Amino acid sequence: xxxxxxxxxGIDLDITSAAASILDEDGEARLLPNADGxxxxxxxxxxxxxxxxxxxxxxxxxxxLDRQHVVEDVAMxxxxxxxxxxxxxxxxxxxxxxxxxxxxxxxxxxxxxxTEYGTALFAVPAWFDSARRQAVYEAAxxxxxxxxxxxxxxxxxxxxxxxxxxxxxxxxxxxxxGQRDTEIGIIEKEGDAISLRASTVDFKACGRSFxxxxxxxxxxxxxxxxxxxxxxxPRLAQQIYDGARQVxxxxxxxxxxxxxxxxxxxxxxxxxxxxxxxxxxxxxxxQLDANLSAFLEEAGRDPASLAAVALIGPGARIPLLRDRxxxxxxxxxxxxxxxxxxxxRGAALLAALRHAPxxxxxxxxxxxxxxxxxxxxxxxxKPENGSPFRARLGLADGGAPQGAPLGVGGGPSLQRPQ
Length: 418
Hints:
The chain has 10 helices and 17 strands. The chain is α+β, with helices and mostly antiparallel strands. Strands 1, 2, 3, 4, 10 and 11 form a 6-stranded mixed β-sheet that branches. Strands 14-13-12-17 form a 4-stranded mixed β-sheet, with helices on both faces. A hairpin with a 2-residue loop joins β13 and β14. α5 packs across α6. The longest helix has 20 residues, at 94-113.
């Protein structure tokens, strides 16, 4: 296996998944697939004996079948003092479990490229506090990865979406609709330099919430077909879990999708179309609209003055969301390419810019690269008492000022994930 001074990974580390990327010599930011051929690895782990841990999609298939030994979205527990999984006679810390996933990812991409990767730039949620960021360093050490730096996901996402190349300067509204959180940020663009001016997070209205609504719909469909009874069968629960995820994915490209549930001798085919999704997820759409309006008001931004609006993250593929924001913002909606890969692509670019400035891939697209120009730091934000929404200032290098508010509102729908 070769060693290369330019071999540095960009890693999009979300609370639900991780994706590794590199900047190729031709200047293209590319995501690297894991051993299963997927370029996104779910942060799901299944401890099946005292020394055995399955990760990613393999672990996901055991969510209902061996629930007590499976942790989904394990990175959401980073920084939580005292959290551990007790399984098969031992305690597993969150750093260990996240580190195992990252180590598997590092080994997979190293084998794929026949190149030893030992350093990575990590793009993490902007709401990660100092304890969570420290836990990322510890998990990376277990994975035998040196952390070159941490950056806020909105900055990486903005670069990966090409927002620094837009002709018009000004404020850009970035909506990152993830699986377990929706991050809303204001990106300030001056020339080809960008910075994160304010951000906030919502843990209720997110991609996973749409899946939950579909799970309820599938369960009700089975219940009606089975005469009002639902067997206590983990295989049915797994079918509902997998079916909701597959239906939501299929609806991103087709007007309707189907799945099949079978248990206790009852087989139930279920077809779901986009209007049905809109109906079962209406409360989520109304909450996203309200949160967005409150955030813009709290951040002191007039929606009409926005230079552009960008929708990224897995939720950006949900047609209901795409259509709603396209109707609201019209021509200001930016074309971001594949919205689900923006953060990983931006992480690869930042990794080269920060830690391998002589990387050959930086030469060809130099005119489209951010220059790292002046980034003014915004003044401290002090929301009025009782404000339902608190904007958080972020720094372009991925850290909020020490002591800055976490950036979640006071309502029950905007709390830290449980």
